[in-house]
Design brief:
alpha+beta, about 35% helix, 5-stranded mixed beta sheet, single chain
Length: about 100
């Protein structure tokens, strides 16, 4: 199964890593590795994430870091739509109606 990031998701990841790098480059590398590791599970386990209010979008946590990956699983691909800090306003998260 193919894995694809949308442009907004890539922008989210870039902003997260840019912010963390300002304080801890090593920390940013750890966060990036964890997010990538969790996302890499999706092609083999597309239903691992929690359903959201939107029946198409699922949410995957990245413990121990407070980031959420919002994705869609289709027949042929996993589409990562957004990566957000869990403390952000839930009404602004993908999948909230």
């Amino acid at each position: 199964m193919k894995l694809r990031y949308t442009i907004p998701a890539l922008a989210d990841l870039d902003a997260i890593l840019h912010h963390i790098t300002a304080y801890s480059p090593h920390g940013a590398a750890r966060v990036h590795a964890r997010i990538q590791r969790m996302v890499s599970l999706l092609p083999e386990h597309p239903e691992i994430g929690v359903r959201t209010d939107d029946p198409v979008i699922r949410r995957l946590a990245t413990p121990p870091y407070p980031y959420l990956v919002f994705y869609e699983a289709t027949e042929t691909e996993i589409i990562v739509h957004a990566i957000r800090h869990a403390a952000r306003n839930p009404s602004e998260m993908p999948g909230s109606l």
